[in-house]
Amino acid sequence: MRGSPCAGLRGCQRSSTAGLRERTVRYGLLCHAYRTCTHFVFECYGAMWNRTYFFAKKDIKIISRGGFFMKKIVAAFLFLMICTGALLGCGGSEKKKEAQNNKVKELKIALSPYQDAETIKTAVGPLSSLLQAKLKEKGFNVGKVTMTVGTSYSAAGEALSAGSADAGFLSGATYVLFDKETDVLLTALRQGISKDTVDLKIWNNGEPEKFNDNLVQYYRSALVAGPSAGGKALLEKVKKGEKPAWEELNALKWTVMSPASASGYLYPSLYLKKEYGKTLADLAHVVQAESYTTSMARLASGPADIAVAFSHVRIRNEKIWQTKLGGTDTIWKQTGIIGVTDKIYNDTVCVSKGSKIMKNEKFRKAFGEALIETAKTKEGLDALKILGHKGYDWADAKNYDDERRVQRELKGK
What we know:
Radius of gyration: 36 Å
Shape: globular
Number of strands: 14
């Protein structure tokens, strides 16, 4: 065989008989050394180390008769065997370490109060097992996924800020408030609605809003007038194309969300600042609600005249307006829109900078991929329906610069 230690035997045919005999013995010993060391390497991986060592040592003594050259070859093979064993040992340690890093005892997720806590927890419940399954496919074994609903939008952000939650579903405004302690990972995709304008005549044309098939990266906030006497009077004025005076707005009772909510506080405040030079904080009668469900219930039953919420809030509450919220007729007949804001970037999925597991870049990436892929399944979409999310895409922090501008303007009012 070409390249074999025995290949040089062909050249011996032209040598003298004595030279031929000497070279034959030498190359024979070399071949023997090759076979012996190969045998030694394989046997080292067995359980019979002592026995293997005995025979190898015996063979080495025989080989040593072949001279110094033979000893060098054997030493080289032994060194190779030792290095191979060491590398395999290190590889095993690395794999063991990686396996430990891929085990997550608990993944804690905070949810903003898009609706009341029990409704949200029940709806998103299946998301826990779906995420576990997806993360397992990506090599991460998560013991359990715990989801909690914040008492306010700020509370959800504070959970990530403190590191008591690893990830959270936050509004863009909440993310901006806590962007020093959180990283934005994903941006939610929403289903578009049939009315996407600031023209109040279109909003009050008598035709109910409907979802369409478009997936959009933004939404709007609306100022919704309820069935109270004050709400009806103000709505009639708007339908005539008249602009209400600040004194009229200030005399009414408003239900709002926490100051961290984009559609429930920040953008409505910016709208009022543009129109009147004042914000929600300047109104005389404002009550903060813990969820949009509570806010719409106050609007339906009378304690509130005006509610501020995301522009598709009437679609969301159409079915329960009369059965649970206290309405006496359909939501389309008892409410109207007196103001609509500019576009608002969609909700986010953020991760805590203080979370130990989210410092693992591989896990962070796997978590994002798991949510994106889960949202493409029927089971995933059903679980996310309560949040109004139809999918996710990788986020860019720069997309929320407008949100930062809104907050700066409001702080500097």
